[in-house]
Design brief:
Layout (H helix, E strand, L loop, with lengths): L3 E5 L6 H11 L2 E6 L11 E5 L6 H9 L4 E4 L3 H9 L3 E3 L5 E2 L1 H20 L12 H21 L1
Length: 152
């Protein structure tokens, strides 16, 4: 059975790359968002538009995560939920979330939220998305799908 890639699509900068890698691996793709995105015409790629309710896209993704899915998200709390369901999880920059790293990522997220709250509007954000991030993501997704196919 081919893998299914679930994309937390509202802020995903690598959707086109996902479509290309998924095609090579005959993987299915679900583009999950609160908004309508244009997706390639393919029987393997489906758009899933959820309500604009708080965490509606995250809830759909977590409810559909399984050991045969790869979840693409930058949302650390969603990554944690999906890992509990046995899914493989990658950030948009190719960084994998796994059982060994998710606890530290959740703790760092909480600390940063506290720091930002105390800075009274001063803050940054993640660094700009780079060509290196895109390349790292492509390699990581290909590696995950290849490993899943070998197990499969």
């Amino acid at each position: 059975m081919p893998a299914t890639i679930l994309i937390d699509a509202d802020a995903c900068p690598v959707k086109d790359e996902i479509y290309r890698v998924a095609e090579r691996h005959s993987a299915h793709v679900r583009v999950v968002s609160n908004d309508i995105f244009r997706v390639p015409v393919s029987e393997r790629i489906k758009r899933v538009v959820v309500s604009d309710g708080f965490d509606a896209a995250d809830d759909w993704i977590a409810d559909n995560a399984s050991p045969s899915t790869v979840v693409i998200t930058a949302d650390i709390l969603l990554a944690e939920r999906c890992l509990k369901e046995g899914a493989q999880v990658l950030a948009h920059n190719g960084k994998p979330f796994d059982a060994a790293s998710i606890g530290g990522a959740v703790a760092t997220r909480a600390i940063m939220a506290d720091l930002r709250a105390g800075m009274d509007g001063i803050g940054g954000g993640p660094p700009p998305f780079s060509k290196t991030d895109r390349s790292r993501f492509l390699q990581a997704l290909d590696k995950v799908l290849t490993a899943m196919a070998r197990k499969g």
